[in-house]
Fold this protein.
Amino acid sequence: MLVHEVMTRHPVTVTPDTHAKDALRLLDRHSITSMPVVDASGTLVGVVSEADLLRDALPPDSRAHMLPVPDERHHEAQRVEDVMTRHPVTVRADLDLAEATELILGTTVKSVPVVEGSRLVGMVSRRDVVHALARSDADIAAELDELYHTLGVDWLVEVQDGEVTVEGPVGSKARSLAETAAGTVPGVMSVTVVPEGTDRGRS
């Protein structure tokens, strides 16, 4: 799978001059943890996360202390540009999803912008990957059947817990086609190609 096959194509975005309160409302309304920050031309200029917006956002509550606690903040950010990350981690739309997932898991971020050059084209998150992998076996099998039909082949497809078995391809080129095509379908965990008529314990 490639990033563009699972990414959110029209993510919620803000501009550098969006008020911090409005940005918080957007995070809450859409149940997301971060948003790309774009300029008027759609160029990515940063990312703002819930952590960015929450940092120093709450004044101390004197009810939790024996003595009144003065608010010692010298500056309260009012705009996204005051708190956003200006050089965020990004990925390309044609990147292998496995590589993008490793990148996300290896950092503290839960989602990253997808760019073509400097232009924002989407957002890919842990949730997007989970959604793709959680597809039902029936949906995966149906998409594979249609895909193979489009390619002009008549192969038998079985899917169990995302593990695909393709029966029928003969020769290295056909096996490669079966594996490559199956690898493009969201939710596929592995692909096994077997000769036609193979006894795999079916009753």
Remarks:
- The mean pLDDT is 88.
